[in-house]
Design goal:
Length: 348
Amino acid sequence: MGNKKNLLGLKEEELIDFFSSLGEKKYRAHQLMDWIYKKGVFSFYEMTNFPLDLREKLNKIAYIQELHLVAQKTSREDNVTKYLFELEDQERIESVVMEYSHGFTACISSQVGCRMGCIFCASGKGGLARSLSSAEMMAQVLFLRKDLERHGKFLSGIVLMGMGEPLENFQAVIDFLYLLSSPQAVNMSLRHVTLSTCGIVPRILQLAQLKLPLTLSVSLNAPVNSLREKIMPVNRSYPLEKLLEACKVYEKETGTRITFDYILIGNLNSKKGYAHILANLIKNINCHVNLIPFNPVKGLEYKSPDPEEVNSFKEALERAGIPVTVRRTLGRDIDAACGQLRRRKNIS
């Protein structure tokens, strides 16, 4: 948008400073946030409690970022919708809306691509292009919320589990969470937010000190270092011993239960023996294990586990006293795994 200032994603005090620089009172910042975050209005000309001359001035020097929808696909198998968006620099990101018993949850991206190189993930196949701004993360939420409301549905939760590693984009993610929970903005309790990480230990410790009431979801995927290094290269920098110690600190500082995501990949990490090792590894952490049968990705050789393997793994954890659930597989018919839709050349 040229030299225009993007007002989306700015905190209340930043908007107050912006309007003060125009000679306007600070309540204009409150009015603008009400239009953007409560009413979903992005055109200054529709903000009818602003004087016309202010609306014209704003239109010349500022804008409110919106996303360009490239493709939208809804699963015929379950109520999952995937969105492909184009950003201002023509990079593309994905978001997903999923229906659960408690309502609709939006899965949003924090980066364009990913550099972590996990073998099961389509997002990282092309590497990392760049991180998203807090405004670009918020733009996803506002678009998805509006699309749901258009159909009489409501957004009840957010998961930062889309493209990218959220803790590699730490400050922008924190700024986004601030706005998401702000009464002047989206006003969503962070108790309805889950942040997923592959295990960036220093950032987990930094996040712990903020004592945010969100759910931390750690992608574990193997209970021994040798296997986890093959699945997740990040383990070479932050092996299981350091990662689990950081999780204990996070649990103590925040008082919240940690979720360990464990993607079950057929003939790789899904044997019952690994469940026994996992149970012993995490038995002293207030946690919940979320077993996720691998969702096949075009171009990757790995396969889903047999249902018997999934049940056996789950039962082994239950017998050890570990709380565990199996996540249902969603959106297989619409390339729902992160990064798949973005990488397709032909979209229909």
